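Same chain as my last thread, 351 residues:
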Amino acid sequence: MSTVTSQVEIIFSDDEDEKEEKKLPNSSGIPLKRINEINQEVNNKQINHQLESSTKKHQSYFRTNLGSHLTTQSTLSQTIDYANRLGMYAIQIFNGSPMAYQRKYYDQKDILEASQKVNQRKCTCQYVFSHLPYLYNCAGSIKNHLLWSNQKNSSWEQIIKNMSYELELMSHFQTDQGGGGCVLHPGSWPDRKKGIESISQTINQLTFNPKSMLLLEICAGKGNTLGVNLGELKQIYDGVDRDLHQNLGICLDTAHIYASGCYDLSQTSQMVKMFEDFDKIFGLKKLQLVHLNDSNVAYNTKDDRHAYIGTGHIWGKSLNSLSYLLDYTQKFGIPTVLETRPDDYLIIQAL
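reply #2:
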């Protein structure tokens, strides 16, 4: 039995003595020592096998809204199979390089097969999201012109087509059993008011079908980045045509929120306030996805640097607020996806 296997079995043990052993004085549920041990083993070539075997053994105890960003397999259908073997309930993928404008196109047979699998009760994977490229700046063009300011931009005509295609693609996962959508970093511009207005106009140019869902992701705030707090996201949302509001949701990223200085998510009271504020501003139904990341930078530093769960500035000392977040998102059925590495799935399912 490998070291990873023994650690996994301890983490998910049903034995009462071992349950007592893993409690911390702060009642966070799993000791940071265990996290460090898992972190030391992440390069083990058998980690996917261990994930598969441990999820099969302990799946009845799993929270049913959690998952991870996964590498896309050869086909969409194979990606769903892969997520299912790992016991993931929600996943996120890149349909192509995040640093390239072009997207990956799938044949209709593969799309249909993948969506049918998600709609099967025996499939754990119920939520499938894609992350749109980081290069897309919905406020300004690559030629440093504010979009929709009488500047013809052939590059953006193609980007609009690419985004519309991906929205249509992910809409196939809006089934009786689950959901899906596309996550977008809104963009950046020096004049915040004009930039926000331009982002809303860009969204208005997209083609949505009734099941398409575009998720505006909150950002860390570096430079001229827009959408760095709930208020700015609401301004973008309000600037979009009202008949498209049904196609818009919000994605909260824990590392971004912490680095932006909006909420100190290492404190449970601030985690509570964040959800309360969101409900007042948007209504909880608009929270379609949570990105779960620790932060490699300190609070209010405006930098986007993810850290493995339990190793960063948010949860490096205590996992109490993380436990609250996991309980909250499960209670309200909010998909929650790791962007660190699939191995952290062992940690969050142990809380």
